[in-house]
## 1
Amino acid sequence: MMRTLIKTLIFAFALILTLIVVQMGRQALAASEVERAWGATVVQRAPNLGTTKSLTIVPLVDEAASRPDLQFEHGVAYLIKTDRHTVLMDLGWNNGATPLRHNMESLAVPPTDIEALAFSHVHPDHVGGFNWWVKDTFALGAEQTDLHGLPVYTPAPLTYPGLTAILTAQPTVMTEAIATTGGIAFAEVFPLSLWRTVRTEQAVAVNVEGKGIVLILGCGHPTLERIVARAQAAFDAPVVGVVGGLHYEDKSPQVVSASIAYVKTLQPQLVALSPHDSTSANIQAFRDAFPTSYQNVEVGRPITLRP
């Protein structure tokens, strides 16, 4: 009996060790694939982007709320408003509830105001939940409702009843002054890497008149430097703002300091980090580094950049 137990434990240990080695190998191959994709991509410029005089970004889902009547969760959804257009980026997690719908109603944001939907990347906390993610689809709430032909821009294939999503491998203009950077490859994070080792993420870029490009990010998996480099290659305006997720939840003070130094080279007029994927200490480091341009990211609190 004891000998059988020992053999079982040895077998289980060997199996676990083998799986770890295999996964490490898959991750190494993924990293190589990401580097090849980055080096091989020829970015198509988007010269006819146009401009907006004003920009307002309203977090509809994030991990902090500005008022007690608004719901928050581990997810992201940002309403992006310019002089003439309104675009929604991402849909949050909606895990066991519908914070996106609740917050839209509380903030008087009717779905009919939304002219286009963009996904930063295809993760459960950005497409409306795990149950939709595993089906390569999305939802604004507990059910998939009729979106009346809403244009959907995604860096990876997604389906939806009655819609044909627009795949954005390259920078793509969605409306006047609002575009996507196009998808940038990144090595998938564990445990989602058990499904797929490489995914793509894009940012939404808004061109503010007399200022430049403000980037709205979901998580910044490809790194902030690469997302900014993509925007610089795609648009005829400097990057002057960074808003959203940057995945500084597990980064050391040294890494955060290096990122802050990089952002300073942009001479930003707007910096706002999401608590969705960054620790309060790392957010505070950015707040301290950019005292005149930093704005908080909270559900219902408008983030603005005006002439």
Note: The chain has seven helices and 17 strands.
## 2
Amino acid sequence: MITAALVKELRDKTGAGMMDCKKALVETNGNVEEAITWLREKGILKAQKKADRIAAEGLCGAVISGNKAVIFEVNSETDFVARNEKFQNIVKEVGKCIIASDAKNTEEALAAPSNLGTVNDLIINATATIGEKVSLRRVTRLDKTDSQIFGHYSHGGGRIVVLSVLEGNDEQVAKDVCMHVAAMNPKYLDRNSVNQDFLNGEKEVMTQETLNEGKPANIVERIVAGKIEKLLKSICLVDQEFVKNPDLTVGKYVESNNSKIINYVRLEVGEGIEKRVDDFAAEVMAAAGN
């Protein structure tokens, strides 16, 4: 019987995850030393040593199958590895595994079956074989009906990837929407989807700014209303000027082609991750002074 105490002992010795420790002990009939060897052979210990590293490079991907699609981000530590064919093949394999499952988010995607057990096992093995921390960071699944269509666009070899769902059947329009989203990065689909707390906060800031500019109090509200309108046009996809034809908004362009935007997801590699900056010159100078 594999006890919790035994799992803790192995975890304390190796730093590996609890589930990995339990699996190792099951495979080795509770022998801790053999379990350590098993973890090493599987590359789990090698991967564990890299777990705290910052992986802010990598690639985004998207896979479409029938009425479902997934968009995801796989990270590496350096752009050099992201350009490596081995890493690119791992990204493709991860996408195949996710779309073949019913995974709707990152947690479910990591548990999806792969040829090595699960997608998480695939990631661990990739970390061990490539020599850099590899991680599956974000996964979103989109579904459509038979009357709807998916759009897909990848920029920079996977640095930015966009998926869209449109009512209608015009593939070019769906792709055009994705290209626009990639370029302009709208925060919301339309005004109904804008976060009200965000809008209230912006209104407060704009009001104070306008008052500080010395504008008469009786016209401040009108000035702020104009600023809010300008803000909404800049952050809402359907209200933005269409990149291919600035005379039209995206909403008007789509509508003129008998389509309607239902949903979209945009992923850009490393967004939101604080990247580590190594100042090697400063390190050398510091070392020389000691």
Note: The chain has three domains: 4-49, 57-178+259-268, 191-256.
